[in-house]
């Protein structure tokens, strides 16, 4: 099912992404109303005619890549990097939004972005020692108090109407994430400092940085625009998106489904790795002092591996080369001389020179190359956002784009309750010995 679902999404992206930039001003919902019926028919026909057909492997190079997206998708006014809104539009509809559509979506999200008071109170009541990701998951789950989907379900809507109410919730959740995530930041690291009001003329990430207290830092804002758009989606099988799909398949509302996803993202083998990379790098810098040579980094890598730990930021469940998102973040640094002087950014670059060789020699991982987490935190650190336990929260603001898009499509296509079979080891042994 997962393979079928992600393949469908890839096909839909590849078919619709074109350079067309006519000045449409349709809303996101109107665009989806046009796109969904054709996809529903396509799925019906695929299932009826070809359900047993093997369609071959999908390679990374077959997928529309980060550089192409950077060329195609509208940026913020005056900015260069992709913004969350244009990425969300593309993920949801398979179409490249016009400038006007992007701005209109930014405004819609800004208008929905304020947190309800009950969530503010809930978050303010949490101990600052509770991990920021735990706080984010709690806040997102509590937002289901206002779920349109839940209300509509209780009123007895038809299955064909599920997706529109799901879309409403997903947009409201994406809109509210910056205020929620920034409140957690200010509570834990800025003694609950007051935030500015949401600016209705600003994009989602522009507001997020302003709410965190970094509005004046235009470089950090541009970096976060790129960061949040490229961390948004990674097929359907990654642990966070898959968790949202699994929980959503029970028809739990989008807030509950995404809250569960955040707790998958909070594991160190998944999204928490970006926190772990910084922790590991700072420990290395402390131990090596000013003596950062390639040989010393190699020794440190071996020390990590021999102590039974993983090298954070390296390896991947499906990628078998350097993560294109890692490369995109490196390219961001390469165009900015101030970043190239940073000790943590230099350490990422030097580690990249030796870690693949060490991991290959170690001989366990199927992929000795860096993933996105190897590079994402060092730039935040350089720009003064040094509280690395917070980094996965930023990932969590981003992953909503992909995970919630999948939820809308799962409802539009009427995908079933997910329930893999489970057998005991004895049954398995029995089946093997009977040659089943
Ligand atoms: C956004 C993201 O989620 S990207 C991933 C972020 N996570 C990390 O960076 C953590 C470090 N990386 C890892 O732990 C792994 O590479 C994962 C979790 C990402 C992928 O796991 P798998 O698909 O099981 O990888 P793979 O099949 O290559 O693993 C085979 C063996 O190599 C080991 N291995 C994989 N990556 C590493 C690594 N970076 N350092 C040391 N050992 C590793 C695995 O632990 C496993 O060991 P085992 O046989 O003793 O169980
Ligand atoms: O795809 C995966 O398994 C992990 C990953 O890179 C992501 O979720 O962004």
Short overview:
With about 425 residues, the protein is an all-alpha fold.
Describe the fold and architecture.
The protein is mainly alpha-helical and 436 residues long. It has a domain at 273-382: Orthogonal Bundle (Cytochrome p450-Terp, domain 2), CATH 1.10.230. The chain is 62% helix and 0% strand. The chain has 21 helices and no strands. The chain has helices at 2-16, 28-50, 66-72, 84-93, 99-112, 117-124, 132-142, 148-154, 162-189, 204-212, 218-230, 239-248, 254-265, 273-288, 294-306, 324-334, 337-340, 343-362, 373-382, 391-412, 425-433. Helix 9 (162-189) packs antiparallel against helix 20 and helix 13 packs across helix 20 (391-412). Residues 269-271, 273, 305, 310-317, 364-367, 371-373 line the site of acetyl coenzyme *A. Oxaloacetate ion binds at residues 234, 238, 317-318, 371. This is Citrate synthase. Keywords: Mitochondrion, Transferase, Transit peptide.
Give short descriptive properties of this protein.
436 residues; Cytochrome p450-Terp, domain 2; 21 helices; binds oxaloacetate ion; Citrate_synth-like_lrg_a-sub; Citrate_synthase_sf; acyltransferase activity, acyl groups converted into alkyl on transfer; mitochondrion; Citrate synthase
Radius of gyration: 22 Å
Largest sheet features: none
Spatial separation of the terminal alpha carbons:
23 Å
The SSE string, one letter per element, is HHHHHHHHHHHHHHHHHHHHH
Proportion in helices: 55-70%
Examine the coordinates and then state which fold CATH places here, giving the name of the CATH topology of the domain at 273-382. Answer: Cytochrome p450-Terp, domain 2
Name the structural class: mainly alpha
What's the count of strands? Answer: 0
Enumerate how many helices there are, as a single number: 21
């Amino acid at each position: 099912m997962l393979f079928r679902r992600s393949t469908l999404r890839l096909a839909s992206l590849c078919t619709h992404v074109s350079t067309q930039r006519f000045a449409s001003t349709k809303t996101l919902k109107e665009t989806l109303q046009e796109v969904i019926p054709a996809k529903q028919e396509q799925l019906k026909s695929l299932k009826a005619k070809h359900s047993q057909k093997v369609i071959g492997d999908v390679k990374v190079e077959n997928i529309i890549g980060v550089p192409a997206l950077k060329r195609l998708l509208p940026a913020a006014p005056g900015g260069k990097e992709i913004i969350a809104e244009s990425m969300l539009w593309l993920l949801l509809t398979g179409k490249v939004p016009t400038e006007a559509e992007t701005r209109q979506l930014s405004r819609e999200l800004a208008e929905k972005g304020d947190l309800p008071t009950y969530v503010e109170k809930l978050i303010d009541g949490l101990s600052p020692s509770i991990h920021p990701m735990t706080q984010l998951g709690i806040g997102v789950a509590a937002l289901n108090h206002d779920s349109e989907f839940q209300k509509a379900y209780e009123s007895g809507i038809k299955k064909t109407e599920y997706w529109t109410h799901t879309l409403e919730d997903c947009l409201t959740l994406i809109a509210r994430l910056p205020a929620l995530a920034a409140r957690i930041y200010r509570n834990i690291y800025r003694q609950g400092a007051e935030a500015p009001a949401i600016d209705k003329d600003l994009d989602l990430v522009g507001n997020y940085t302003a709410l965190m207290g970094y509005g004046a830092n235009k470089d950090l804002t541009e970096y976060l625009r790129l960061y949040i758009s490229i961390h948004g989606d990674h097929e359907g099988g990654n642990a966070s998106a898959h968790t949202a799909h699994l929980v959503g398949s029970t028809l739990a509302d989008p807030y509950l489904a995404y809250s569960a996803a955040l707790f998958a993202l909070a594991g160190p083998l998944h999204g928490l790795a970006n926190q772990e990379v910084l922790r590991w790098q700072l420990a290395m810098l402390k131990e090596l002092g000013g003596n950062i040579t390639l040989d010393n980094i190699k020794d440190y890598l071996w020390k990590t591996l021999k102590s039974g730990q993983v090298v954070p930021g390296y390896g991947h469940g499906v990628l078998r080369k350097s993560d294109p998102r890692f490369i995109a973040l490196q390219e961001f640094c390469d165009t900015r001389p101030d970043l190239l002087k940073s000790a943590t950014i230099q350490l990422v670059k030097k580690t990249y020179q030796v870690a693949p060789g060490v991991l290959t020699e170690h001989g366990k991982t199927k992929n000795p190359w860096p993933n996105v987490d190897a590079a994402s935190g060092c730039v935040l650190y350089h720009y003064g956002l040094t509280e690395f336990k917070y980094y996965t929260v930023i990932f969590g603001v981003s992953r909503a784009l992909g995970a919630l898009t999948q939820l809308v499509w799962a409802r539009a296509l009427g995908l079933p309750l997910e329930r893999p079979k489970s057998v005991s080891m004895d049954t398995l042994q029995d089946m093997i010995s009977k040659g089943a």
